[in-house]
Design a protein that fits this description.
alpha+beta; Muramoyl-pentapeptide Carboxypeptidase, domain 2; 17% strand
């Protein structure tokens, strides 16, 4: 048995490898779920996927507020997005447009890459409902808007804002 296999079988797996494997599996799960439900049920399946990720986002907003001590401001919503981006392995650029508007760009988005590998972008059913629920669930009066939807040429740009 090779050294790597022996270590893995004994549960000696470097933390970085564990995180990378978990991220990869999560990306595949998110993509595969969307693909299967789209193929089987069409638009109705994608609506179900969107509802699942909206609910997960609502739950995660509550958990993030509790775990990180986030408040209810636009800045807190933006911080939550940044934390989620780090967890998911995304490289995000956050730019404050004004005191009431913050924009995020994702030059590197592992979920976008997973969708592209599968041949179809499911951002509208998976990512957007989730991050909308997180951003709006944390900040009072915070809303989310898609500035530039993801397409075959690149990842999305989203904004959080208050009126």
């Amino acid at each position: 048995m090779g050294l790597m296999k022996t270590a893995a079988v004994k549960g000696i797996i470097p933390p970085g490898n564990k995180v990378s494997e978990l991220r990869s599996n999560l990306m595949r799960l998110m993509s595969t779920m969307a693909i299967v439900l789209d193929e089987r049920f069409g638009n109705e399946g994608l609506e179900a996927v969107a509802e699942i990720f909206k609910r997960l986002g609502e739950e995660d907003a509550k958990a993030l507020k509790e775990m990180l001590g986030l408040g209810t401001t636009l800045n807190d919503s933006a911080d939550a997005w940044t934390v989620i981006g780090h967890v998911m392995g995304a490289k995000m650029k956050t730019r404050w447009i004004s005191e009431t508007r913050v924009e995020t760009d994702h030059p590197v988005c592992p979920q976008y890459d997973a969708f592209m590998e599968g041949g179809k972008l499911y951002c509208e059913s998976v990512c957007y409902p989730y991050v909308k629920a997180v951003g709006e669930g944390i900040g009072i009066g915070v809303k989310m808007e898609i500035v530039r939807a993801a397409d075959k040429d690149g990842t999305c740009i989203k904004t959080l804002f208050t009126e």
